[in-house]
Amino acid sequence: MQKRAIQRGRPLGATTFEVAPARAFGAVVRATRTEDGVAQETLAHLAGIERSHMGKIERGEHMPTLALVFKIARALGRSAGELMLETEARLPKEWHQPPAEG
Fold this sequence. Notes:
Layout: H1 19-35, H2 40-47, H3 51-58, H4 66-76, H5 80-90
Helix pairs in contact: 1-5, 2-3, 2-4
């Protein structure tokens, strides 16, 4: 079995991210991974990223790209939609309210 090339670093143009969704998504990934009994290193390998990057995603320090969300979901045996629904449920209340007009 041939080892996949690991992509390093942040995507081009990505400079910031919203903290609440990053933390919520990371918590969902970590909870799903631990419920399934999968090691962080194994999940990272299946998703094609470094373990340290997976750790930053799980801690909410990095927001993955949409493509990486799909890779993580596939590695977890879930759909991206399932992960997003769980992420949305973990968001703070202010994320569920319509934006203020002004």
